[in-house]
């Protein structure tokens, strides 16, 4: 029997998100219904609401979630009813050209549910990042479910589903931070702060957090930044000089841009050491353009990388990072700066503009 639950949708561009009834169909052979216990409020959901992703309205918002498997399709083998899972939007197919080349973190054909959820009148919903988790329950493909330890709090574990994983992976996977290296992170929101934590976890000895917010600079220090720089009154060249001063005059081995505007990327480019790595993990707007002297691109060497979902493999990374959290070695709980319910999601989305929180989490109790 189809289920009727409450969910948060965006009906039209830049219109307030609303809580309404949605219908979840019976699961297809490889589909799973997950009762959502917690879902983080991410900038990506705001972008969906405001038309910054595409125009496939109405959207069922939410994607950074943890919950428990409630129903499974007849061919499901990956999870069982009752499993505690973190949802992911990179359900590796194992067959596309990326998977065939041995780089499944770039999978081009990730799995999604076989059928849409709908509004009460039958209108098909587009789930954010193929998940749609600002709801009491959602429908996903079985491979979008990653089992993690039952001991993890849902509001903490769910953060691995997107932003925190993106930041941790930018340092651990894309940036490949090595023991003893120096790392600078530009922008200390949820993703950038996670990049700081990832750099610490990787063994970086100098970790520099840069932001314009005193609260976020403090969050960076709490997560292990050895130095912080308030960039609110500084030019690009002044920021570069300060990073160089903290790294023996050379610049950082890895600079991670978690803001993704041309100005911060240019700063990242020049704040790295010769042959250093730049990692872009923030998501730029479609209209943004970047101009760099080609001779500088050649002459500085190194690597300019983009980090997609922290280049993670959910089945490898989610359980590993959850275990580190439970062992007290990764302070994931520090990212939860507030909770709300589904009715409060719209206010939580709007609060992202203020820049004072790392993550508000919508909790279904």
Describe it:
This protein starts with a strand and ends with a strand. Strands 3, 5, 6, 9, 10, 17 and 18 form a 7-stranded mixed sheet that branches. It has 365 residues and is an alpha/beta fold. The mean pLDDT is 96. It has helices at 43-49, 97-100, 154-157, 163-174, 190-202, 214-222, 236-245, 262-271, 294-300, 314-326, 345-351, and strands at residues 3-10, 18-24, 31-40, 59-60, 64-72, 84-87, 118-119, 126-127, 137-141, 145-147, 182-186, 206-211, 227-230, 252-257, 272-280, 303-306, 336-340, 359-363. The longest helix is centred in the middle third of the chain and has 13 residues, at 190-202.
Main traits of this protein?
alpha/beta; 365 residues; seven-stranded mixed sheet; single chain; six-stranded parallel sheet; 26% helix
Layout of secondary structure:
Elements: E1 3-10, E2 18-24, E3 31-40, H1 43-49, E4 59-60, E5 64-72, E6 84-87, H2 97-100, E7 118-119, E8 126-127, E9 137-141, E10 145-147, H3 154-157, H4 163-174, E11 182-186, H5 190-202, E12 206-211, H6 214-222, E13 227-230, H7 236-245, E14 252-257, H8 262-271, E15 272-280, H9 294-300, E16 303-306, H10 314-326, E17 336-340, H11 345-351, E18 359-363
Parallel strand pairs: 4-8, 11-12, 11-14, 12-13, 14-15, 15-16, 17-18
Antiparallel strand pairs: 1-2, 1-4, 2-7, 3-5, 3-9, 3-18, 5-6, 6-10
Helix pairs in contact: 4-5, 7-8
């Amino acid at each position: 029997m189809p289920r009727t639950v409450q969910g948060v949708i965006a009906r039209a561009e830049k219109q307030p998100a609303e809580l309404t009834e949605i219908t979840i169909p019976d699961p297809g052979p490889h589909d799973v219904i997950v009762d959502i216990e917690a879902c983080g409020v991410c900038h990506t959901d705001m972008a969906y609401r405001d038309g910054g992703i595409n125009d496939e309205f109405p959207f069922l918002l939410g994607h950074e979630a943890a919950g428990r498997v409630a129903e499974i399709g007849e061919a499901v083998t990956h999870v069982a009813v009752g499993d505690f899972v973190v949802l992911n939007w990179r359900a590796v197919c194992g067959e596309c050209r990326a998977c065939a080349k041995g780089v499944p973190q770039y999978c081009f054909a990730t799995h999604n549910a076989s059928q849409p959820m709908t509004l009460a009148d039958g209108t098909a919903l587009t789930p954010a990042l193929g998940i749609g988790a600002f709801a009491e329950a959602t429908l996903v493909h079985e491979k979008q479910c990653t089992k993690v330890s039952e001991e993890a709090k849902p509001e903490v574990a769910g953060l691995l589903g997107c932003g925190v994983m993106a930041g941790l992976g930018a340092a651990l996977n894309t940036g490949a931070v090595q023991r003893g290296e120096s790392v600078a992170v530009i922008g200390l929101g949820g993703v950038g702060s996670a990049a700081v934590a990832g750099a610490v976890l990787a063994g970086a000895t100098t970790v520099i957090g840069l932001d314009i917010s005193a609260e976020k600079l403090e969050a960076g220090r709490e997560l292990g930044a050895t130095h912080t720089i308030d960039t609110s009154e500084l030019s690009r060249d002044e920021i570069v000089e300060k990073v160089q001063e903290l790294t023996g005059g050379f610049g950082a081995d890895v600079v991670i841009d978690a803001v993704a505007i041309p100005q911060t990327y240019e700063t990242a480019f020049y704040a790295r050491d010769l042959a250093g790595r730049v990692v872009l993990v923030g998501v730029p707007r479609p209209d943004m353009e970047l101009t760099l002297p080609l001779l500088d691109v050649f002459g500085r060497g190194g690597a300019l990388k983009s980090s997609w979902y922290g280049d993670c493999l959910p089945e490898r990374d989610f359980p590993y990072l959850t275990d580190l959290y439970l062992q007290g070695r990764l302070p994931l709980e520090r990212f939860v700066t507030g909770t709300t319910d589904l009715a409060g999601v719209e206010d939580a989305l709007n609060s992202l503009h203020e820049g004072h929180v790392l993550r508000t989490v919508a909790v279904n109790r």
